[in-house]
Design goal:
Keywords: Hydrolase, Protease, Signal. By secondary structure, the chain is of the alpha+beta class. It has two domains: 269 residues, Beta Barrel (Thrombin, subunit H); 94 residues, Pdz3 Domain, CATH 2.30.42.10. The chain is built from eight helices and 21 strands. The strands form four sheets. It has a six-stranded antiparallel barrel with strand order 8-9-10-13-12-11. Strand 11 and strand 12 form a beta hairpin. The two termini are 21 Å apart. The N terminus is likely disordered.
Length: 381
């Protein structure tokens, strides 16, 4: 969990990262009757569209044994919980030393959405992190025990599976076509209340909130709160164009600044996780940094461009390709890279073994080399 010195950046829910304790029982609304596989005709409101979409949005309740939360919890999660208590003035459920449920269990709630009629479900990785048991509840009250197929903390995406057939489901849309100002609909389970629908617009695109190396969030003012984590952000066609993941708030509640993982990234991670439960990422083997203004000036650039290689790890694809400290990477497969995040994403979105053309600058001379990527082993490019 990344923290800031300003307003709190909060992941919306989870067991170890939960901000609410399930109160037992979930309020339900009348279920829809048809699978959400296509958007109905649009009118002056979203009544028909919401009726079609909400049956595919589920509440996810996770159970974690108290011994797991306290004794085995990673230090980073404990630090986050302590930070939460300090900022919001209340103990965070699941925090070591805080009372749990009878029997030594603690519970948290989040949201997910069904993407196949046979029970494949998408949520956030932090929702199910450390869970001993995951229960999925549909709008009509049906409950299923879910299996965690796989989770990718780097993008905060997880895939679950339940044994069921003929389920209502939704599909991913194309987040690359989004525009600022476009209407969106968020559906989730805030504070354990059950299915809740809010609307808003796309406030910004490509946001980096320093949550991880692949930050490229959709920012929206649709009200999302703790418990909405893992829920879908829909466009007006009823397609999932984002997975609601985090908020920035000085109070812990919605102030109109929420963030969703774009479907372009989420759908690729879901496909990868669904295969074998893991995500394969290309790896170059370098430590990188932005190009400083001084270096840019020395090279005759008006401003910093490209990505500086600060170090090359031994026995890596980068070393085999002949990269050296001080080289400036300009493009990957013809696409320009301007920041370290650009290079990290460009390399990590490719599979190990892929051949990639990298253009770089050395002592003012531009060179192109083909690199066969290895397996990604850390957060560097």
């Amino acid at each position: 969990m990344t923290r800031t010195t300003g307003p709190a950046k909060t992941y919306l829910t989870g067991v170890a990262l939960a901000a609410l304790v399930a109160t037992g029982g979930v309020l339900s609304v009348a279920p829809g009757a048809t699978p959400a596989t296509a958007a109905p005709a649009m009118g002056t409101d979203y009544v028909d569209l919401v009726a079609e979409l909400t049956p595919a949005v589920v509440t996810i309740e996770v159970t974690q044994l108290a011994r797991t939360a306290s004794a085995e919890m990673p230090q980073e999660q404990r630090d986050f919980m302590e930070e939460f208590q300090k900022r919001f003035g209340m103990p965070m459920p699941g925090m070591p030393g805080q009372p749990g449920r009878p029997g030594g269990e603690m519970k948290g709630a989040g949201t997910g959405f069904v993407i196949s009629e046979d029970g494949r479900i998408v949520t956030n990785a932090h929702v199910i992190d450390g869970a001993d048991e995951v229960t999925v509840t549909f709008e009509d009250g049906r409950e299923f025990t879910a299996e965690v197929v796989g989770a990718d903390p780097a993008t905060d995406i997880a895939v679950l599976d339940i044994e069921a057939e003929g389920l209502p489901f939704v599909s991913f849309g194309d987040s690359t076509t989004l525009q600022v100002g476009q209407n969106v609909i968020a559906v989730g389970n805030p504070f354990g209340l059950g299915t809740t629908v809010t609307t808003g617009i796309v406030s910004a695109l490509g946001r980096n909130i320093n949550a991880g190396p692949f930050d490229d969030f959709i920012q929206t003012d649709a009200a999302i709160n703790r418990g909405n984590s893992g829920g879908p952000l829909f466009n007006e066609m009823g397609q999932v164009i984002g997975v609601n993941t985090a908020i920035i708030s000085p109070t812990g509640g919605s102030v109109g600044i929420g963030f969703s993982v774009p479907s372009e990234l989420a759908s690729a991670i879901v496909e990868d996780l669904s295969d074998d439960g893991t995500v394969e990422r290309g790896w170059l083997g370098v430590r990188i940094a932005p190009v400083s203004d001084d270096v840019a000036m020395a090279l005759g650039f008006d401003e910093g461009t490209g990505v500086m290689i600060e170090d090359v790890t031994a026995d890596t694809p980068a070393e085999a390709a002949g990269f050296r400290k001080g080289d400036i990477v300009l493009s990957v497969n013809g696409e320009g890279v301007e920041t370290p995040r650009d290079l990290t994403r460009a390399i990590a979105t490719l599979r190990p073994g892929a051949e990639v053309d990298i253009t770089y600058l050395r002592r003012g001379e531009e060179t192109q080399v083909t690199v066969t990527l290895g397996d990604r082993s850390n957060i560097d490019a």
